[in-house]
Design goal:
Strand content: under 5%
Number of domains: 1
Shape: elongated
Largest sheet: none
Distance between the termini: 43 Å
Radius of gyration: 16 Å
Number of strands: 0
CATH architecture: Orthogonal Bundle
Helix content: 55-70%
Length: 87
């Protein structure tokens, strides 16, 4: 079974979601992700959360967040990327 025909695992599905929302996936990749979302409530929930964040962030301006919130988001992003020690 090659990579394009095997079922997606959640890690792979999450990596595709931004491109999915942007309409940048091939038809085959969209079908694979759609099949995964039907069977995986966690990934379907994550996708809905992404959509909510995109909708909400469309109305947020940089000055809407206080500096502590910005720092918290930057720290979270660094932890997710695995470079929490980087400055």
């Amino acid at each position: 079974m090659n990579l394009m025909t095997r079922p997606l695992v959640c890690r792979d599905a999450v990596e595709l979601m931004s491109d999915y929302l942007d309409g940048a996936l091939s038809r085959r990749e969209r079908r694979r992700l759609s099949r995964h979302l039907v069977d995986c409530a966690d990934c379907a929930t994550y996708l809905e959360q992404l959509r909510a964040v995109i909708a909400a962030s469309g109305t947020a301006r940089p000055d809407d967040l206080d500096p502590a919130a910005v720092d918290a988001f930057v720290e979270l992003f660094r932890r997710v990327r695995g470079d929490a020690d980087a400055d």
